[in-house]
Structures are given as C-alpha cells and as structure tokens.
Design goal:
The structure holds two protein chains of two kinds.
Chain A lengths: L1 H21 L1 H32 L30 H14 L1 H4 L2 E6 L4 E6 L2 H19 L1 H4 L5 H10 L11 H19 L1 H6 L2 H23 L4 H12 L11 H16 L7 H7 L27 H14 L8
Antiparallel strand pairs in A: 1-2
Chain B lengths: L7 H4 L29 H6 L21 H15 L1 H8 L12 H6 L6 H16 L1 H6 L10 H11 L7 H5 L6 H14 L5 H13 L7 H19 L14 E4 L10 H15 L3 E2 L16 H18 L3 E4 L3 H15 L25 E3 H10 L15 E3 L3 H5 L5 H10 L30 H22 L3 E4 L2 H14 L4 E4 H8 L28
Parallel strand pairs in B: 1-2, 1-3, 3-4, 5-6, 6-7
The structure holds protoporphyrin IX containing FE (HEM) and iron/sulfur cluster (2 copies).
Chain lengths: 331, 540
C-alpha cells in the first residue's frame, strides 16, 4: 500500500512535469522558479537540521566499542574499532562513511526448530547494494558539475574515462548509470520481498527509492535514447548558478521531468530520512574516542542531585555499625 | 508467581517473517511471563519519584496523572535538547533493517516489535508527530502517530524487553544505539510513575543501605567474615578482609551479589585469596557496598545519585585509587559515565599497581581499574604462582558480557587470565562473542521471575552458542564477568543447554592460585573434588 501510493505520487509528479514542459508559460516555472525554490529549501533545511543536531550537546562519552580497549602496554588494542586517539576516530569514521564498515558485518539469522538451533549466515548483499548505489550516486553528482562550470574540470573528464571503460556504445556507456539503477532496483526489491524489511518500511522509504529511480531513469533515457540539446542545458545551468537565468526555447520534455524530480529531491531531502548523510558525521557512538577513563568528558548541563551521604548513612545504622565492630566517624 | 514456563520445543515455535500488516495497528497483551510488575509505591516515595500508587501493568487503568501526555511531551522536548544522541537517532534511521535480526529478544521471540528498528519506531513515530514539520502536516503518511495511552503501554512493554545491550548498534551503519533510546523512554515513563519494581527496589535499597539487596552494615560484615572462614576451610590460609579502613591504598568495589549469591560468591573467594597472596593494602566499604547501578536502568539522574557514593567514599577513606570487581553494567557506568557524572576525582592518584609498578594510564582520569586489568598485569609480570590443572575438571568457555564488551572494550584481559589459570578453554562461535556477544537476556533490570518466558527467549541465542561448544568440546563451565549473568544465565542454560554451569573468572583464579602456606587442596572453591593425580604445571 505504502509502496503503491508513493509510486503513484512519483508518477503524478512526472506527468505534471511532462505536461508542463509542453506549455511554454510553464517553462519559466519549471526551469527557474522551481530549481531556485528547491535549492533554497535544501540549503535552509539542511543548515537548520545540522544546527539543530549540533545545538544538542553530547553529555556523555558513549562510543560503541567494537574492539579491544587501550589498556595494558602488552595487550594489542584495536586502534580503529575501539579508537582512543583522534586519528583512530577519524579513520573509523572514514571507513564508516566511505565503506559502510558496520553494514559489512551484516549476517542473517535463521532458526531450526529441531535442536533448537540458531544458524547465522553471511549476508553482504545489502552492503554491496548500498555501496554500489551511493558511490554511483556520488560519481554521477560530481559528473553533473560539467554543466555548471566552464571549462570542465580535469578530474571530471578523468572520472568519465574510467567510468566509460566499456566502450560499447555512443555516447559511451557509463558503468555508474547501470550500477545505480540495478542497485536501486535491488534495494527496492529487498524492501518489497524481505518480510522483515517490508514490515518496517514506511511510505517515505519507498518514496525515496522511487524518486531516485525516476531521476536515474529519466537521466539515462536522455543520455542514450531521447537526446536533448546539451548546449541549451548548459546555458540554463550556468544561467542558474550565475543568477542570470535564461529560459531556453526548448530542451525536451524528458529534461523537465528530470529537473523537476531533482528539485523534488532537493526540497524533500532535509525533511526526510535522507538527512542521514549529515547525521552520520555526528553520531556519538561512532565519532567519540574510547578514552573516557583517560580524559574527563564534561557534561555542560551536569547538575547536583540528591544523594544519601555517608553521614546520613552512619546515623541511620550507627548501632549496627558499632555492634559489628566497624569504625565510625562519630562514636 | 507465574506458572512453569512452556517447554523449549513449544517456545521455539516461531518464525522470523512478520505478517503483512501495519505495525501501528497490531496489539499485544500483557501475557504472564513476558513483563515485570510495577514498582511499589514505597520505593517511589523513598526516592522522591512522581506518582507513587498501587497499579499493575495488566490492569486497564494505570492511574496516570491527568496531564500525563503533556508531561511526556515536555520530557521528550527536554531530552531532545539535552542529548544529541536522542535527537540524531530520532532522525537518521533509514530503516535498512540491518539491525533487525541482531537482537536476542527478536531471535528468541520473533515478535517484530523486538526488532531494534521497530522498537525505536515506537517512539520515533511519536517524535515525528509532535516534533517534525512533515509529521505534523502529513501525519500517518510521514510515519507519525498520536501519543495515546495505548502507545504508552506499548512503550512500557517493549522498552522493558530491551536489555540495553547495544548489540544492534554494532551493526547499524549509523551507530544508532537502541539502548540509548531505551534509556530515554524509561526516563520518560518514570516521569509519569510508570516503572518496575525489579529496577526501583534495588535502587531504593542501594540509596539507603549502600547496596541493591538492602544488606545492612553488620550483615555485610558477617557475609565477608563467612567468606574468610570458608577460605580457611578450603586452603588452610586465614585471609584478612578489611572494611571501611581509613588510609588503605585501594578501595575495592564489587556488585553486592558477589557477597550474597551463588555462583558469584566463589568469585569473591577468589578476590580475597588473591589480595591476601599479594599483600594488597585495600578496603571494602559498607557504605559504598555496591558497584552495580540499577539507577542506570531508570534514569541518568538516578544513576548519578547511586554512583556518587563511590567517589565520596574514596575521598572519606583517603585511598589512592579504586579497584572494581566483576560486573557488567557497573563497568559501563564507571567507564563511560562516572567521571562525567561525579568527577573530577582529583583527590585520587593515577592508579599504579603496588605489586608490579604498572601505571594504569588508561584509567588516569577516572582512577578506577577493572579487576581483570589488575590480575592480568599480575600474571604477565609473573607475580602469581598458578596451577591451572586445578581447573582441569572444567572445560571452559567465556561469555563476553555486553557492557564490558561494547561499552568498554575489555576483551583480551579476561581471556588472558583464563588461559593462565585453566588448561581447557574453548571459544564460542565468532559472531556470538566479543563485540558481537549475545546478552544473557535478563540485563537492564529484567531478571525477575515474573518475566521468565521473555528472559528464556532472550537467553536463547547465548545458550545456543554455549550448546555448540558443549556438544563439540564438552564445555561444562561458562565463565563471565557480570553479576547479572551469574544470577540469570544458570536458569537460561539449565533450560536450553543443561550441563553447563556458570562461574566467574576469579573463581578459576581461586582454584589455580597456589598460596603460601596452603594445605593440599582436595576440592575446588565450590567444594567439588578435584581431579587429582595429574602432574601440576606451575607458572611462576
Ligand atoms: C555521507 C554520505 C552518505 C552516507 C555515508 C550514506 C550511507 C547510507 C547507508 C549506510 C545506508 C543504509 C544502506 C541502504 O539501505 O542502502 C543508506 C541508505 C540510503 N541512502 Fe545514503 N548515505 C549517504 C548519502 C546519501 C545521499 C546523498 C542520498 C540521496 C539523496 C542517499 C540515499 C539513500 C537512500 C535512498 C537509502 C535507503 C535505501 C533503501 O531504502 O534501501 N544517501 N545510506
Ligand atoms: S540498522 Fe540502523 S539505520 Fe538500519 S534500520 Fe536499524 S537502526 Fe535503522
Ligand atoms: S540494545 Fe540489545 S536488547 Fe535493546 S534493541 Fe538493541 S539488541 Fe535488542
């Protein structure tokens, strides 16, 4: 149900964009107003989100330790998974962010009633699918810089050369284009068919996937099948970033679909789970060093509490302490 | 009292595939054996907690204050502003499901709301409804739902089916720690007087007498004296066990079960024998006679109130530093919270072992050392005479307790000790030990009799791994460094994996330690006859 509603929503948006692209008076709206509005929502929303997180302090040092602590000199400590130095934490974070370290641990549990026996098996598919999707996404986003800057930076050209190593079509087939769609379809498939993941999935989980699929598919169609006027696209893009927008005559209906969905994504991102991008950097179970007995961590809102003092205790149990022959402060 | 739990064959009639349903519309009932009873009013009064009254979870009317909803929402707002962890974990879950089958309660019960992600969604849905723009506007479509009394009951049920073990957080790509969320929800529930007796009675006892069991000073002294006598009987050596001794070098803190429960008690014998043998200048405290901290299972504030005694007593007695015994959540509190809560401990010195001269630089700020760090340093420096063959009747495995593993990283020290005091040591499978260790199923204040069905379910993954080494290597002793493990794993193992006993690391030390002037040992510290006639391999 959630999957269907979100699918329909994306179809409707696509349809509107398609139709809008045909009507010249709508083009200003789609080409200029919408991208600016989306970008504004994205920036304001993201800054708001990050500031909101950052405004809550980290009262306790609570890393999840995934390896041996630093203790005695002759015991080898796990300097990354149980990092006690800044460098160790930085490396731990980098591995989490770039390689999805924790997801790599993933396993699958099954139960056999006879015995009973619990069986665990390797399960790296989620890790692989997630990594494939995110890296392709990153490469694709970077590649889009070509539309916004002139001349096109060297590293983007180099990236494309690697990406296009399967020289099987003209324009060159880019590996990331295939990978991102396959990976997204895998993630969607998983959400729909794994009963556990299906049970926890919300409307917004499907929405994110359909939205990204819509963007990727419309992009691919433009690149390989229904060519659009790239010069016009570049004009529009440079116009937008230099704040002197021009509305080109016609770029092609597909382009409007693509641009509209991207705008939707930008505006939606800060207000959805997609902000996990910013959140991972701040996660206190990962970005704190396991040094809490070495260095005192200060809680900014630490406040005095009511305690039961030794004196109160001695008073209450005075006679019993005495009878037991234990020392007293006050005889 | 609840009736006998169902048979193991019945308990495992489960499937990990949830039905196709909207979880927000599924209901549960308070079935006997799956929840803890409410906290007695007297305990709330003693601790100055709100809304003391008589009520039980299975009753329809929980006698909440009329403005309970306002209190909860205000409490949520306050905590979102005070804890970055809480706010972040409310926002960034992508519902990838990686944590789903990592929780021992899900693995044992297959109740989908025991998937860590869904446990968290129970409050996340309320967070969205009242604290996010999308949730306020789009409601259900944005995964939001209203806070109702039913939701509150659901929170009580499922956040007291989480042992705050942090296993889920090891697997989450963002490090989302459901334990942290459970801590927050339990704090919120406490604001309206919804709490369990198994958490608050120990907390009230600890506040008053100094320990969870409510043992008063004279009884504390008696039980330590009793242990001294027992050691003399077994070894022929008379040890000393000073209490409240001013000017001692070291204050020694243990969980109270060590001097009142079995098999903890054998570990206590081990500490006393060890300290005697190395001539340690230490003292127990009858005032700070508890290392464990059930306050931690109720709120940050209660944790601080109970924990304060340790530093206060160290200061009063004028010791140089503090040594701590075998306990799980006690060590999470000491390692990650104590210094922040009640420090700085600038009246103490950086811990140095008086026997080996080793500086415990890793504890230079908190000034408290774990007994396994201390003992492994003694063994490494060859200060102990050990005869591991006196543990030959044990085929040993080691269960990493959740908190020392995932909230501290104490993994090698206990293993090093075991290898030196016992000849037969076998590890359980990789994904059930170290940072991936499985909880006993009864931590965080859930280890009570009325909750037995749920405890056994939660204990299944651990017991199953123990069964693996029992069947493969003949393991008959599961060692651990946690008082709750020692109290509850015997029940779980007897149920799922009969034939495996539970013991502490320092129980094995007690058996292996060759003491000056001791008589020939005929039994181990449990009074079981030793396998004699074998040649002793002595490490010295
Ligand atoms: C620092 C950057 C980022 C990191 C470290 C990161 C990490 C992750 C991880 C570990 C997952 C869980 C695995 C999965 O379900 O695929 C995930 C899920 C996801 N991420 Fe990211 N991500 C980042 C940025 C982004 C961005 C910019 C987007 C796109 C707008 C995005 C979209 C998604 C989506 C849609 C999912 C859910 C996939 C599903 O539903 O199965 N991520 N991310
Ligand atoms: S592993 Fe983390 S992100 Fe994935 S569902 Fe669980 S809590 Fe959410
Ligand atoms: S902390 Fe432990 S008990 Fe709680 S949800 Fe996570 S795995 Fe389950």
């Amino acid at each position: 149900m959630n999957a269907l509603t979100s699918f329909i929503l994306i179809l409707v948006v696509t349809g509107l964009a398609f139709a809008g692209g045909e009507i010249s008076s709508c083009r200003v709206l789609l080409d200029v107003v919408l991208p600016y509005a989306a970008m504004a929502a994205f920036l304001v929303g993201l800054v708001y989100r990050v500031l909101k997180w950052a405004s809550s302090p980290v009262p306790f040092n609570i890393p999840t330790t995934c390896g041996q602590q630093k203790s005695l000199s002759w015991i080898k400590s796990s300097w990354i998974e149980s990092a006690h130095t800044k460098l160790g934490v930085a490396v731990r974070m980098a591995i989490e962010i770039l390689l999805f370290r924790s997801l790599f641990r993933n396993s699958r549990a099954q139960i056999r009633q006879e015995g009973p026996r619990l069986l665990y098996s390797e399960n790296k598919w989620l890790w692989l699918g997630a990594l494939a999707f995110h890296w392709s996404m990153l490469v694709i986003v970077l590649r889009h810089l070509r539309f916004f800057v002139e001349p096109v930076p060297r590293f983007i050209l180099a990236m494309d050369a690697v990406d296009g190593f399967f020289q099987i079509s003209a324009p060159q087939l880019l590996v990331t284009d295939v990978v991102i769609i396959v990976a997204l379809l895998f993630l969607l498939q998983r959400r729909l068919t794994d009963p556990k993941v299906r049970y926890i999935s919300l409307f917004s989980d499907y929405l994110a996937l359909f939205l990204l699929l819509g963007i990727a598919i419309s992009g691919v169609l433009m690149r390989y099948f229904f060519k659009v006027d790239l010069e016009a696209v570049k004009q529009l893009a440079i116009g937008l970033v230099t704040f002197s927008p021009i509305v080109p005559a016609s770029i092609g209906a597909l382009f409007f679909v693509h641009l509209t969905l991207v705008s939707f994504l930008l505006a939606y991102l800060p207000f959805s789970k997609l902000v996990h991008m910013g959140g991972i950097f701040l996660s206190p179970t990962r970005n704190l060093p396991n040094d809490s007995r070495m260095v005192r961590h200060v809680n900014p809102w630490n406040y005095p509490v009511k305690v039961h003092t030794y004196q109160e205790w001695e008073e209450e149990f005075h006679d019993k302490i005495k009878a037991a022959g234990l020392p007293l402060e006050r005889e | 009292m609840p009736g006998a739990p169902p048979k193991p064959e019945e308990l495992v009639q489960i499937s990990y595939d949830p039905p196709r349903a909207d979880w927000r519309k599924t209901r549960f009932d308070f079935q006997k054996g799956t929840y803890c009873y409410s906290a007695a009013a007297k305990n709330l009064r003693y601790l100055d907690l709100p809304n003391p009254r008589d009520w039980q979870p299975y009753e329809a009317d929980w006698k909440l204050p009329p403005n309970w909803k306002e209190i909860i929402l205000k409490g949520m707002k306050e905590r979102l502003e005070k804890f970055r962890s809480f706010r972040l974990f409310m926002d960034i879950c992508v519902r990838c499901g990686a944590c789903a089958d990592k929780c021992h309660f899900f693995l044992g019960s297959a109740d989908p709301k025991n998937m860590p992600v869904l446990r968290a969604e129970l409050i996340r849905s309320v967070y969205r409804r009242y604290f996010t723009l999308a949730g306020r506007i789009f409601r259900g479509l944005a995964g939001a739902r209203d806070l109702t009394e039913d939701v509150l009951k659901e929170w009580f049920y499922y956040f007291y089916q989480c042992t705050e073990c942090r296993r889920c957080s090891v697997f989450c790509p963002f490090g989302i720690d459901t334990a942290e969320i459970t801590i927050m929800v339990r704090e919120l529930l406490n604001l309206v007087g919804v709490n369990t007796n198994w958490v608050l009675e120990p907390a009230a006892n600890c506040f008053r007498t100094g320990n969870h069991l409510g043992i008063q000073p004279h009884t504390f002294k008696d039980s330590i004296d009793f242990a001294v006598d027992e050691i003399e009987e077994i070894t022929g050596v008379r040890v000393e066990a000073p209490i409240n001794k001013k000017g001692a070098e070291i204050l020694f803190i243990v969980p109270s079960a060590d001097y009142f429960a079995v098999p903890h008690y054998y570990t206590l014998l081990g500490y006393l024998m060890l300290f005697h043998e190395i001539g340690l200048d230490y003292t127990f405290s009858a005032y700070a006679s508890e290392g464990g901290n059930f306050g931690f299972f109720s709120s940050h504030e209660m944790m601080k109130r109970l924990n304060a005694k340790i530093y206060a007593e160290a200061k009063r007695l004028g010791v140089k530093w503090i040594l701590g015994g075998e306990c799980g959540h006690m060590w999470r509190v000491i390692h990650q919270y104590m210094d922040t809560l009640n420090g700085p401990a600038d009246f103490l010195e950086e811990p140095v072992s008086p026997i080996t001269g080793t500086r415990f630089a890793n504890a230079r700020s908190t000034k408290m050392v774990h007994i396994c760090e201390f003992t492994s340093d003694l063994i490494y420096n060859r200060k102990l005479k050990l005869d591991p063959s006196r543990n030959d009747h044990w085929k040993v495995t080691f269960h990493d307790s959740c908190n020392p593993a995932r909230g501290m990283g104490l993994l090698e020290e206990p293993r090093y000790i075991i290898r030196n005091v016992a000849n037969h040591f076998y590890e359980m499978p990789e994904n059930t030990i170290r940072e991936q260790t499985f909880c006993c199923g009864s931590g965080a204040g859930l280890g009570t009799d009325e909750n037995i069905d749920m405890r056994l379910r939660g204990g299944l993954p651990r017991a199953n791994a123990a069964k693996y080494v029992r069947d493969k290597y003949g393991v008959n002793l599961l060692t651990c460094i946690c008082a709750i493990d020692k109290a509850t794993l015997p029940t779980a193992l007897e149920y799922w994996t009969p034939g495996v006993e539970v013991g502490g690391i320092h129980e094995l030390v007690a058996n292996a330690l060759v003491m000056k002037g001791e008589k020939e040992r005929i039994t181990d510290v449990r009074g079981e006859p030793l396998q004699l006639g074998k040649e002793a391999t002595v490490n010295a």
